[in-house]
Specification:
The protein has 4 helices and no strands. The chain is mainly alpha-helical. Helix 2 crosses helix 4 and helix 3 packs antiparallel against helix 4.
């Protein structure tokens, strides 16, 4: 009987702690820094080394969790919030994110 009570208390603590984390993270705003170079990436001509570095990062990091979308499937306005959100989830630094953005924006 004691074992059941201890298990129930532990289960309650675990569930409560998970719920508290979700509530706190839902209230915290996203604070992802976007490199200033992102705004003008689609207007520049891509350099072959930047293009292929961004393509490699995109294919290797993004495909770990979901299917890869073609660059032309979304507009630049649609890509921007997606890239910002995914940078945080994929733990990419600003340089890696700039390469991926360059690859995507250069195809639009």
């Amino acid at each position: 009987m004691r074992l059941k009570i201890i298990a129930a208390v532990l289960l309650t603590v675990v569930l409560f702690s998970c719920g508290a984390k979700l509530a706190v993270s839902a209230m915290k705003p996203d604070t992802v820094q976007v490199p200033p170079k992102l705004a003008s990436l689609s207007e520049e001509k891509p350099k072959p080394e930047d293009f292929y570095a961004g393509k490699s990062l995109y294919e290797n990091n993004c495909a770990k969790c979901h299917k890869l979308y073609g660059a032309t499937e979304l507009s630049k306005a649609d890509w921007q919030p997606v890239l910002i959100k995914m940078q945080k989830k994929a733990h990419l630094d600003n340089i890696q994110m700039a390469s991926i953005s360059y690859y995507i924006y250069s195809q639009l």
